[in-house]
Structure formats: C-alpha cells, structure tokens
Automatic annotation (TrEMBL):
Locations listed in the record: Cell membrane
Keywords: ATP-binding, Cell membrane, Membrane, Nucleotide-binding, Repeat, Translocase, Transport
Species the sequence originates in: Bilophila wadsworthia (strain 3_1_6)
Record-linked Pfam families: ABC_tran
Function summary: Probably part of an ABC transporter complex. Responsible for energy coupling to the transport system.
One annotated GO molecular function: ATP hydrolysis activity
Its membrane topology: Peripheral membrane protein
Designated name of the protein: Cobalt/nickel transport system ATP-binding protein
Residues covered by the ABC transporter domain: 2-241, 266-466
Similarity remark: Belongs to the ABC transporter superfamily.
Length: 467
C-alpha cells in the first residue's frame, strides 16, 4: 500500500537531505513502527508517506513514494488524503468544527453524504471510541487525549486504506493507550496498512510487524520488535525502553499525606471549581503536595490540566485557600510564585532567539547571561542559542520551555506532560533536571502519562479524581 524506493528528500533552501536512500513498504494488514531520536527524519518520512512532501513543503524528491502503486508526486494531494489518513501529534491543528459532533460530521457533509448516513456514521464513531459523553462538548474543552480520540474517529470514518499516526501515545493515559493498541490490532485484521511514528515503544509489543530505527536521516536498523530489547542498540540510537513496568501500582499516594507547619510544598483546602453548565470537577477537596517530585495522574478528562491551572491562578477557583511552604498565598498572587510549563510549548515562547528566552527567565530570578551556557548544556540546546524558538522541533521547544522554567528557580513548578514527544535520551535529561530541582527543595508536580518518567523521577502520586 505504501512503498518507498530509494527515497532522498531535501527541503527548500537546504543543502543537506532530511532523509537519504529510504526503502521500505507497508503492506495491507501490516503495522510498521518508525522510531529514532529527535531530528532523525521521522517527521519527514511521515510527510513523504502522506504526500505533504513534496506537495505542500515543496523541496526536491529523488526516488519514488508510491501509494497503491501510484507515485505521490504525480497525484493531487486530495486524492492521496482519501486513501491515507493521518493523525498528527497535535490533533487540534486538523479540526474544522467547534464541537465534537460537528467535527465528526464535517468531512461527510463536505462530500455531500445524506443527513441519515451522517448520523449513522457519527453513532458508529461514538460507539467505537466511547465518545458519547462528549459529543456535545466544545473541542477546546477536551483533554489532549480526548482530542486525539476525536481526530482518529473522524479519520477512520472516512474509510482510508492506510493510516499514519504521529506520536499517537504521547498524550494518552496507559489505559487509553492500551485501547488504541487494541484498535490498531483490529484495523490490521481488517487489512489496513498502518505506519506509526512514535518514541514510546512498549505499547506496540506484539502488534508491530516490523520496526525501522532511523538515525541521521537514514534507516540505521530494521527488523522485528524483539531487536528493541537490545540495550546497546537503544542506547546508541537514543531510544526509549521496549518494556516498561507500571510504577502507579507502587507509588505512595500523596493525598494521604498532610504537610507539617512550615514544610515546603503547596497546599489548597476547600477547592471548588466547575466549568459553566458542567458538573463540578472539584467540590470542596483538600490537596497537599510536598516538596519533591509528585506525579499527577488520572484518566484523560479527569481534570489534571484544570487542577494545574487552578494551582497557578490561570483559572480562578470558585472557592479555595492556598498556601506555599505553610504561608497563605492569595489566588491572585499564585502565578508569581508557581511556575508552569504548559503542554503546548508554543504558548510560552515569545522572544526572537533561544538565548533571549533564557535571559528573560534568568533575569526574573535575579540571574544573568552568564548562566545561559549551563542551561543550554543541561537541556541539550547547544548550537541553538541564536535560533528563533519557532524554528525548533517540537522536542527542542519543549526542552527550551522547561529550561526557562528551571531558570526562574521556582519554589513550586507544575509541568503538563513535559516528556510528550521526547525520545529516550531527552526524556532522561528532563528526569535528571526534575531531580535536580527536587534536590534544591522545590515542589515539582508533573502531569504525566509517561510510565518511564514516573519510574525515574516521581516519589509519589496524586491521583484524580479526588474524593
């Protein structure tokens, strides 16, 4: 269904190819996993497979990419899109409607499908992905994991012959990830060709038929999933673990801990909050988060990001009393005392260069430009100091935003999925940075579904929903 024949591709105004001499195929009823360190060429390979390169990104294509036996550069991209569905890492970028039901209907309406048939397709998609409770919800109210489910449901309702998924597990809780794995296995059994580009590996054990490991724009290793058990290979290529234990079973629950007077950490009592017209997410709950690294965990949609926004003052609680290190803090002052790293790094990058972003953050903490090289080194951003932040890859942006938060030396730092989309090497860098902050006595709350990060850094867990 998807076939690459000696493909080399170079972006416009670049002299070095993004990928070189790529040959592989994805046959009907087969799932191929493509992985590798950040910047190795995975995203370009995905864009070649769905026709975005060279139709949208232009550039120079050597060799052939074939979909159903036809070269992609000889076909209009709209015809390719009917055969190859793509779910991008940020599904919101491919939504056209304001609520879930309208999004599921949009493509069918555009194609002139009858209202009765559209209603049937919406019902089928809602049942397949358990979307019934959120059909009337605004797209912007959804968690990242819920958005991903809506995006995948919308794509599959069009009946593509092949499916490409970009970091599909990055924002899903472990149970939703398991559901996705079952869904992909079902699609394979129906004869769909599936290409998954992902840093997280363990969830595709037993499902991936073949694995491509990319390095510096080339396929460095290829074989079955079992080759990923080789520690040396994973270390050489910057990969994550192929098997992961679930630390949620053993992490102590910080909801059962009470902060002692004067003890470092963040506490809130009597917290009440509900979105307009919705049931209360938090109804008079008490939360105590001690110093150290705490994982904030729970199913998609249980209010993890909302709680983070309440604890920083980005959302106003209807009721609640806040304290840091035992000292009361007005809700209006929380944002000056609590650092936050949002899930979408673009929302926190505003300067013209990486260096300027770090210098501004350092100045807020009383530091100076002399500290910039150390931060660049700690977060593997050397060589990027003069780059515009919006020119960075997703993983590089994520590390920059975390570096900026780190530079401010906050007493409390909240991070929303900080390792989403990061390879093994950079995930471990973030884990080391969190440990360093905790060693300074900071309270670090990490919203995460990343079992590897939990196992490396988190000393306890705060589980949602709270009683």
């Amino acid at each position: 269904m998807i076939r690459f024949e000696r493909v080399t591709y170079t972006y416009p105004f670049q002299t070095c190819p993004a990928v070189s001499d790529i040959s592989f195929s994805v046959r009907p009823g087969e799932l191929v996993l493509c992985t590798g360190a950040s910047g190795c060429g995975k995203s370009t390979l995905m864009r070649l497979a769905n026709g975005l390169c060279p139709h949208y990104f232009q550039g120079t294509l050597e060799g052939r990419v074939l979909i159903g036996g036809e070269p992609t550069d000889a076909r209009p991209i709209n015809t390719i899109a009917r055969e190859v569905g793509t779910l991008f890492q940020d599904p919101e970028q491919q939504f056209f409607a304001l609520n879930v039901e309208d999004e599921l209907a949009f493509a069918h309406e555009w194609q002139g499908v009858s209202p009765e048939a559209i209603a049937a397709k919406i019902d089928e998609a809602a049942r397949a992905f358990r979307l019934g409770p959120i059909l009337s919800s605004s797209i912007h109210e959804l968690s990242e994991g819920q958005k991903q489910k809506v995006g995948l449901a919308s794509i599959l309702s069009q009946g593509p012959r092949a499916l490409i998924l970009d970091e599909p597990s990055a924002n899903l809780d472990p149970e939703a990830t398991e559901d996705l794995a079952c869904k992909l296995a079902e699609l394979k059994a129906r004869g769909m060709a599936i290409l998954v580009v992902d840093h997280r590996l363990y969830w595709l054990e037993g499902i991936a038929d073949r694995v491509l490991v990319m390095r510096e724009g080339r396929i460095a290793e290829r074989g079955g999933f079992d080759m990923l058990y080789d520690d040396a290979l994973r270390g050489r290529c910057g990969l994550r673990a192929a098997r992961v234990d679930d630390p949620r079973r053993t992490l102590p629950d910080c909801a059962e801990e009470l902060l002692e007077p004067g003890e470092g950490g963040l506490a809130v009592s009597g917290l009440r909050f509900a979105y307009s017209g919705k049931p209360a997410l938090f109804d008079g709950v008490d939360v105590s988060i001690p110093a150290g690294v705490t994982a904030l965990i729970g199913d998609n949609g249980t209010g993890k990001t909302t709680l983070a926004r309440l604890l920083t003052g980005l959302n106003a609680a209807q009721e609640g009393r806040f304290a840091i290190a035992g000292q009361p803090v007005p809700a209006s002052k929380l944002l000056s005392r609590v650092g936050i790293v949002l899930q979408n790094a673009d929302h926190q990058l505003h300067m013209k260069t990486v260096r300027q972003e770090l210098e501004v953050s350092l100045s807020l903490a009383g530091g100076g430009a002399d500290d910039v090289p150390g931060l660049l080194s700690l977060f593997a951003l050397e060589g990027l100091a003069e780059r515009h932040p919006q020119s960075l890859s997703g993983g590089e942006k994520q590390r920059l935003v975390i570096a900026c938060a780190f530079a401010k030396r906050p007493d409390v730092l909240i991070l929303d999925e900080p390792t989403s989309g990061l390879d093994g090497r950079n995930m471990r860098r973030i884990a080391d940075a969190l440990d360093l902050l905790a060693g300074r006595g900071a309270c670090v709350l990490v919203i995460t579904h990343d079992l590897e990060l939990m196992g490396l850094s988190c000393a306890r867990a705060l589980r949602l929903p709270l009683s």
